[in-house]
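Researcher: Please predict.
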Amino acid sequence: GEIDNKYNTFSIQFTLPVAGNDTYPMQQRAQYGFTIDQAYFQTASGTIDADVQIGGVSVTGLGAMSVSSTEGSATATANQSVSAGDKVTLVTTNNSSANMLSVILYCTRT
């Protein structure tokens, strides 16, 4: 991700050419604590449901994102704190011919 040291904000960008119904690591092991604030998401074609999780627990507000070829966004409202060592994953379900799934998480270092 890109870090803006002035504000301690950064983004995690994740792209899958062809997404299945699976769990994908977005951040295998967090190097430091941060909060996930917002997500932007889109496919090139098709639809899929996406769920951002920290240590297997859904981030409230990012737990049932319906992703299509129209860019969407969602704001995290709870369960959004990542501790050093935590794993952040993207769980995808209900895939309907989704291609080029792109998810960007906007985060703030704590």
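Model: Residues 53 and 89 are 5 Å apart (CA to CA).
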